[in-house]
Amino acid sequence: MATGRLMRAIRVSEFGGPSVLKLQSHIPIRDPAANEVLIRVYACGVNPVETYIRSGTYARKPALPYTPGTDVAGVIEGVGDRVKIFKSGDRVFTTGTITGGYADYTIASEESVHPLPDNLSYKQGCAIGIPYFTAYRALVHKAHTKAGERVLIHGGSGGVGVAACQIARALGMKVFGTAGTQEGMDLVVKNGAHKVFNHSENGYTEKIKEATSGEGVDVIIEMLSNKNLNADLQLLRQEGRVIIVGSRGPIEINPRDTMAKESSIVGVSLFNATNNDRAECAAFLFAGMEAGWLTPVTGPEYPLEKAAQAHEDIINTPGATGKMVLIIFCKSMTILFVCCYPLSCASCCHK
User: Fold this and answer.
1) Sequence-distant contacts of 179-183: CB under 8 A, at least 24 apart
2) Nearest to 292 by CA among 175, 154, 142, 191
3) Is 68 helix (H, G, I), strand (E, B) or coil?
4) Are 41 and 116 in contact, with CB atoms under 8 Å apart?
5) DSSP code of 138?
6) What is the pLDDT of residue 256?
7) Is the pLDDT assigned to residue 209 strictly greater than 70?
8) What is the mean pLDDT of the chain?
9) 12, 66 in Cβ contact below 8 A?
10) Rounded to an integer, what distance in angstroms lies between the CA atom of residue 185 and that of residue 350?
């Protein structure tokens, strides 16, 4: 049932390029059902997977029209009559939404909503969902990493990369990372990598081999496998594992490269995670928030009306530096960005 109030939201009525992301200003805000909450969205993360879904090339296609967005941080405005954990006014972040996060308000099921600690901003809150849950799933559920193993985070300066560096370091691994710019390399080291390499330089894989005394690494978390997978297989040590987090097309490899070392190539999809998988991950991440090592890094910021530009940039701009964020609602018009919703609020997305 609609509340009678209206909101802005990005709507996709056909699959295609970034231009299909259309801002509409008169979308009804509906009441939450029994096990749902209504969230006032302060910030929403932008993920590469959302561009694949929008283009119609991803295996999972939503019914049209739809509003993109999974990783939301904000304040609960209403709860269904069976919701027990949350109440209006609670600061939260999500690992999933029902009505989409590129909007002033979103509906989410209670099980996909988590408390946002006071020491993290709303911007940081919207950088937790897909990046940290994906990184944990890749490292723990799929790679079965152990303390002391060498892990290469290939593309360590993006949202998932930063999360993977922090988690791997917390789990006691020897962490190597790559980035394409000096700024990105500095970010990778700051967030847990013992060594960092510039993957834009010729011969960087030889430097990685040298850093391991020619032995190679146990695990590679791969963000761009269509470019790197063949080289990754040469970097593995015996029974090494390449964990595929991202790919933007096909690549040709020689399967014999997996045979001599009995190495594995394993894909990751957070959509396949069970409720138990997510609960385990959430417990680990909350421990990281309490301990202080889980500190999401955000990068470029866009107002809601620039969502199409964000989708263009996340694919075509080299040198990621943290999680890309849509700023939906803020109190101040003077903090680094222009307020894109002309109302006051109790606290800002920077708090």
Assistant:
1) 179/155, 179/319, 179/320, 180/318, 180/319, 181/157, 181/318, 181/319, 181/321, 183/157, 183/319, 183/321
2) 191
3) coil
4) no
5) I
6) 95
7) yes
8) 92
9) yes
10) 25
